[in-house]
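[audit] Reproducing an earlier prediction to check determinism. Same input, same settings, fresh worker. If the tokens differ from the archived copy the diff job will pick it up downstream; this log only records the rerun itself.
[audit] input (275 residues):
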Amino acid sequence: MKRLEENKDFRAYRYGDHLEPGYELKIEHSISCEDVDISPFIMMGKESLEAMRQGSIDGEQKAYEIVVAAAKQWEQQAASTQMIDRALEYLRTPEVEHTGNVWEKSDGCRDSEQISNRVYKMSCSIKENTKHGRETDQRIPVAWHVTWDLYVNSPKQGYGEKIAGQNQKRYTDKAAALKYLDGRKKAYAHLFTEISPQIPKQYERHFTVHGALLPGYTVEGQEPVKTDRTAAEVSEGGISMLEKPSVLGKLAAAKSQEKAPAAPGTAKKKEDMQI
């Protein structure tokens, strides 16, 4: 969004100055001197104006360099903010919900049940298909459709890869359907003997946040991750929260200089140079 600020001698346009902490900084300004009285400058002569112009450009360059330096400093500080955000995301990841390796009915549905732990979850259901019997005027079962799924039980929202499953496998005999489903349960029963079994390497990403394995988990073939590094070591090159940045000191000094009263003998010169 473009914002306009009108001063005595010019208009300043600011095109959406924006800070998204830890990610993005935007600063874009332009100015316009449309109705300014230039007669005092015309009387000074070409050579004097050329010298004055170069001095003004030098002042712009100095201000530009301070802004660029401040932007570079922001880059370092934003990197620290982003690392902190990522660590907070890790710490805010909730513990995954599970049934503690016990089969339970799913959402009160008598034909659907599930079992889960911190790494795996399995669900299964049998849906009965019926037709209308003309002789008895009642619904008669004609088929049973078996559905089962085995998933990674990831604590991260939007994750949870499907490992195996069958959708709507049809049987015309209920006993056969139950036998098949019981066989699927037994085939994967070994995954539901521990609350937090080891994670197969191919599913590790479902239990990591920004490359760090969530607490309480282990990966097959790997030793538990340990680290003695401090936050200061991890963010080496960043800016201390307590350190007073020198470039901000320059900006403060420049602002103070603008507000400081003019020295004797310079007031008229500054009036002559004012646009």
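[audit] rerun output stored. Observation attached for the diff report: The longest strand covers residues 138-152.
[audit] end
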